[in-house]
Design brief:
By secondary structure, this protein is α+β, with helices and mostly antiparallel strands. The protein has one domain: Class II aldolase/adducin N-terminal domain (L-fuculose-1-phosphate Aldolase, 3-Layer(aba) Sandwich). The protein has eight helices and seven strands, in the order H-E-E-E-E-H-E-H-H-H-H-E-E-H-H. Strands 4-3-2-1-5-7-6 form a seven-stranded antiparallel β-sheet, with helices on both faces. Helix 1 runs parallel beside helix 7. The longest helix is centred in the C-terminal third of the chain and has 24 residues. The radius of gyration is 17 Å and the shape is globular. The termini are far apart. 40% of the residues are buried. The model has no long low-confidence stretch (mean pLDDT 95). Bound molecules: zinc ion (ZN). The site of zinc ion has 4 residues, from loops.
C-alpha cells in the first residue's frame, strides 16, 4: 500500500542524516496521501543505517496503524495535527538540529536578518510558548501540535514553513516530504547564520523591502528567480 510514498518518505528520512541535521534517531519525516487521508511516517527508534521503505508505517489521521511492522514515530500525533489543520501541507519534518535548538531553548524566534532567510521564510520563524505541566503530562505530542497551531494561527502557513517548539526544536513542512526536509535544512542554516550575526551585532536587522524583494522573486505570482519556462 502507498509503495511510492513509502519510498519517498524513507529517502527523505535518510536525507536528513546525509544533510547533517540528524544524528542517531533524532528526527522524523512523514508525508500524507490526500486521496486516502493516510500518512506514511518513520518508525519509532529504528536506526537509519538499514532503514528501507518497508520499515515505514502507515497511519490514518486518528493515529491508528493501518500497515507496518513497527510502531510509528513517537511524534506522530504532532504531525497529524498539522495535516488535519492545513490541507496545503503534504510533508512534515522534525529534527533536533543544533542551531535551531539553541533558539528553541532560548525561547527566541529566528529573526529574518538576511536574504538567505528571506528566500525561503517570509519573516521571523516563530517560537511557541512553553507547554504547561498539564499539556506535557497528558497528550504531550498532541499538545505539541496544538501549540504550533496556536502560534501560527492566522498566518500564511506556507510562507513561513517552519516553527520552533520552545525547549524542544524545529518542525518544518512543505508540499511533500522532500520539501519539508529542504526547509528543515535551510532553517538550521539560517539559525546558524542568525546566531552568529547576533553574536557580532545584537542590533542586526533587515528592512522589510529587502525581505519582500527576496521572498517574492522566488515565490508567488510574480516570481522570476531561476529558469523561466
Ligand atoms: Zn523531538
Amino acid at each position: 500500500m502507498l509503495e511510492q510514498l513509502k519510498e519517498k518518505v524513507c529517502k527523505a528520512n535518510l536525507d536528513l542524516v546525509e544533510k547533517g541535521v540528524v544524528i542517531y534517531t533524532w528526527g522524523n519525516v512523514s508525508a500524507i496521501d490526500r486521496e486516502s487521508n493516510l500518512v506514511v511516517i518513520k518508525p519509532s527508534g529504528v536506526n537509519y543505517d538499514n532503514m528501507t521503505p518497508e520499515d515505514m508505517v502507515i497511519v490514518d489521521l486518528d493515529g491508528n496503524v493501518v500497515e507496518g511492522r513497527w510502531s510509528p514515530s513517537s511524534d506522530t500525533a504532532t504531525h497529524l495535527v498539522l495535516y488535519k489543520t492545513y490541507p496545503q501541507i503534504g510533508g512534515v519534518t522534525h529534527t533536533h538540529s543544533s542551531n535551531a535548538i539553541v533558539f528553541a531553548q532560548a525561547g527566541l524566534s529566528i529573526p529574518a536578518l538576511g536574504t538567505t532567510h528571506a528566500d525561503y521564510f517570509y519573516g521571523d520563524i516563530p517560537c511557541t510558548r512553553e507547554l504547561t505541566r498539564n499539556e506535557v503530562e497528558k497528550d504531550y505530542e498532541l499538545n505539541t501540535g496544538n501549540v504550533i497551531i496556536e502560534t501560527i494561527a492566522g498566518s500564511n502557513v506556507m510562507a513561513i514553513p517552519g516553527i520552533l517548539v520552545k525547549n524542544h526544536g524545529p518542525f518544518c513542512w512543505g508540499k511533500d516530504a522532500a520539501q519539508s526536509v529542504y526547509n528543515a535544512v535551510v532553517l538550521e542554516k539560517v539559525a546558524e547564520m542568525a546566531y552568529k550575526t547576533l553574536t557580532l551585532n545584537p542590533n542586526s536587522s533587515m528592512s522589510n523591502y529587502i525581505l519582500d524583494k527576496h521572498y517574492s522573486r522566488k515565490h508567488g505570482p510574480n516570481a522570476y528567480y531561476g529558469q523561466q519556462k
